[in-house]
């Protein structure tokens, strides 16, 4: 019940004209970047981050998270109307969404997508409201070994559970951790890996890297493809909205199941894509009539959208409670926290109550406002696609450069951004995942500090990571996850996992 | 004017939305380089990077002293992991290379990517000498004209309006100061 009181306080923080206006601006910008080809959640947040540098942290995070909700909503528009998934987790939405649009039921599909996004996020936000304070107060007892064990768990689960080739995830992660270490060593004050360059003294800023990796590289990738598109225009009338909503109770099992899958997978890193496919596949599997999926069935829109948004939102739970982002976008928001001078981690709930509860309240409010906004303005946003990419591309480049420069007022950072753009382009094309890189870059210093502090505390004995039940079980779990593919293979040989594997396909 | 524009957009909604791409890359363009070759190249680069960083960390101390791990300890072992990963990647790519090659980029695609990359590179250079806003105007106007084949007056107008909005938003409203050049100096900024 304490959470409820604090949440009300959060709403009180939010309900000023200034914050509400920022929220609207954030949502509109978010839908805008979500609809534009070649941009999406993490890119949009990364590019627009500099706008918030001079704001107070609460307004800034409210605006940024609204950009994120907006981008999530926007992704559904292009998936359904144009069969172009803006993000990997929108792919499953196109399976039934686009056929619906072709049958002239675009308005219905869009309403279903927006509504289920709203429901998915709502369930995840409820989870955050009640679970995050508990986890963070539990985590307040953590010492350096426990924190290092949790970081290790995050990194290991990326390697063990990721879909990419394992060595590529390892490369991406160790490169990120190494680059994070460049510059002044925080414990001893010595310089590392600077090779005498005064520009490298500051270290490689996480946000500069992200703007290059996601913004610039995405422009390069988008240009590679044929940008001509053909799709259906749609406007949503109140009648359609009401008729879809009237049928909602019929699909409560699908919605609940997808929300649950989303929340569960969202907390583990990189889960949104898996969640959307799993939500879709399970809905199909449990349906009485699985053949009709893929031909324009409304459940085929409900299931993946609910799961994707539940997981996108749930990814913020570990970020808020432990300071560990569950997705690329959460990592960027975490980078933002540091720019505004907040120290992410469990202390956030104690030291910055206004900020945390303002953010959580903004998730509720942002989703409601976002839902109304997209339902009423879809035609305008769909028309954004008429703007030629040749006009949009250079504007995005300029925005990226402004963002990169603004972080530390350094021209060198603009060059660094360009370099990371090329790296991101090449990595994406040869299948080296960028999410572990981003995560490693933002967590690198804190992981190293935690490791060194625990080592200093124990006098260099690695047994400190098994010194009590809590840290021991986290470390063991981390190592189990790291070797999960091997273990899974062994169990499979015995015949254990055959069944689970069949269901997940 | 805005209301009019919105009305225009709304009234078009019954139509299909069709956007053409005048300079689209051809579908059957020949491959310039295969993914496998690039993978080998990247792995060699990463291996070299791992060796350089590993050496630097070893130099600054990668063992233990009386207070605990030395500064290079953590990154030294990371370099080792990066080196191991890239070596594995190199071998895997070399083995896979003998089989059918997947295209990394076709010639038409490469031309298009260069059509964005080169202007972006020039934009960074111009920013260094003439300031960000002049560079931004030049980039947008020339890109729209040359790549998008959009009418000159539209390109110039869009570039000017966008740059002006950025200037007002960042330098004036939000106090985020961007690099400036001789033009801004002439106006006293």
Automatic annotation (TrEMBL), chain A:
Source lineage: Bacteria, Pseudomonadati, Pseudomonadota, Alphaproteobacteria, Hyphomicrobiales
Domain of life: Bacteria
DUF112 domain sequence ranges: 20-438
Coiled-coil regions, chain positions: none
Transmembrane helix in keyword set: yes
InterPro entries, per database record: DUF112_TM (IPR002823)
Protein name: DUF112 domain-containing protein
Regions that span the bilayer: 20-40, 60-82, 109-135, 147-163, 200-220, 251-278, 319-343, 355-375, 387-408, 414-443, 464-487
Annotated Pfam families: TctA
Annotated organism of origin: Bradyrhizobium cosmicum
Keywords: Membrane, Transmembrane, Transmembrane helix
């Amino acid at each position: 019940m304490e959470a409820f009181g604090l949440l009300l306080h959060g709403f009180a923080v939010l309900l000023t004209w200034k914050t509400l206006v920022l929220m609207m601006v954030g949502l509109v910008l978010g839908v805008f970047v979500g609809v534009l080809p070649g941009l999406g959640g993490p890119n949009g947040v990364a590019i627009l981050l500099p706008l918030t540098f001079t704001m107070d942290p609460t307004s800034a995070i409210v605006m940024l998270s609204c950009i994120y909700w907006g981008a999530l909503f926007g992704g559904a528009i292009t998936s359904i109307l144009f069969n172009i998934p803006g993000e990997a987790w929108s792919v499953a939405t196109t399976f039934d969404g686009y056929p619906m649009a072709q049958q002239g039921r675009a308005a219905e599909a869009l309403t279903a997508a927006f509504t289920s996004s709203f429901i998915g996020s709502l369930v995840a936000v409820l989870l955050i409201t009640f679970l995050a304070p508990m986890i963070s107060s539990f985590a307040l007892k953590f010492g350096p070994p426990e924190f290092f064990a949790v970081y290790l768990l995050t990194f290991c689960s990326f390697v063990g559970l990721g879909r990419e080739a394992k060595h590529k995830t390892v490369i991406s992660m160790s490169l990120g951790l190494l680059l994070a270490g460049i510059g002044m060593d925080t414990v001893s004050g010595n310089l590392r890996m600077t090779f005498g360059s005064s520009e490298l003294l500051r270290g490689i800023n996480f946000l500069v890297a992200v703007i290059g990796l996601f913004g610039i590289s995405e422009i390069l990738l988008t240009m590679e493809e044929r940008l001509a598109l053909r799709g259906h225009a749609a406007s949503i009338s109140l009648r359609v909205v009401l008729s879809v909503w009237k049928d909602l109770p019929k699909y409560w099992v699908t919605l609940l199941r997808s929300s649950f899958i989303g929340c569960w997978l969202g907390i583990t890193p990189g889960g949104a894509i898996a969640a959307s496919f799993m939500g879709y596949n399970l809905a199909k599997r449990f349906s009485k009539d699985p053949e009709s999926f893929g031909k324009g069935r409304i459940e085929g829109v409900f299931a993946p959208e609910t799961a994707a948004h539940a997981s996108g939102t749930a990814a913020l739970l570990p970020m808020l409670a432990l300071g560990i982002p569950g997705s690329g976008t959460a990592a960027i928001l975490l980078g933002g926290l540091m720019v505004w001078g907040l120290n992410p981690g469990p202390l956030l709930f104690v030291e910055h109550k206004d900020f945390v509860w303002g953010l959580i309240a903004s998730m509720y409010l942002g989703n409601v406002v976002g839902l109304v906004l997209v339902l009423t303005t879809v035609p305008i946003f769909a028309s954004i696609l008429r703007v030629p990419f040749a006009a949009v591309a250079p504007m995005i480049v300029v925005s990226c450069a402004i963002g990169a420069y603004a972080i530390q007022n350094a021209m060198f950072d603009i060059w660094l951004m360009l370099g990371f753009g090329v790296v991101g382009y090449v990595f994406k094309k040869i299948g080296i995942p960028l999410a572990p890189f981003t995560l490693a870059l933002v967590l690198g210093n804190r992981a190293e500090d935690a490791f060194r502090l625990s080592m200093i505390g124990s006098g260099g004995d690695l047994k400190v990571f098994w010194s009590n039940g809590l840290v021991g079980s986290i470390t063991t779990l981390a190592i189990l996850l790291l070797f999960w593919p091997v273990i899974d293979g062994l169990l499979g040989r015995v015949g254990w996992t055959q069944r689970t594997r069949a269901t997940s396909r | 004017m805005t209301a009019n524009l919105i009305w225009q957009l709304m009234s078009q909604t019954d139509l299909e939305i069709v956007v053409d791409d005048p300079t689209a890359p051809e579908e059957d363009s020949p491959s310039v380089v295969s993914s496998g070759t690039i993978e080998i190249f990247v792995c060699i680069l990463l291996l070299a990077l791992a060796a350089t960083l590993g050496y630097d960390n070893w130099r600054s101390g990668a063992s233990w002293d009386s207070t605990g791990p030395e500064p290079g300890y953590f990154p030294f072992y990371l370099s080792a992991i990066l080196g191991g990963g890239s070596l594995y990647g190199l071998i895997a790519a070399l083995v896979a290379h003998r089989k059918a090659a997947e295209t990394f980029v076709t010639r038409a695609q490469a031309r298009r990517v260069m059509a964005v990359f080169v202007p972006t590179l020039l934009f960074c250079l111009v920013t260094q000498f003439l300031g960000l806003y002049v560079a931004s105007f030049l980039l947008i106007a020339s890109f729209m004209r040359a790549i998008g084949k959009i009418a000159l007056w539209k390109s110039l107008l869009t570039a000017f309006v966008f740059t002006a909005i950025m200037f007002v938003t960042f330098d004036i409203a939000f106090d985020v100061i961007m690099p400036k050049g001789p033009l801004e100096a002439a106006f006293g900024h």
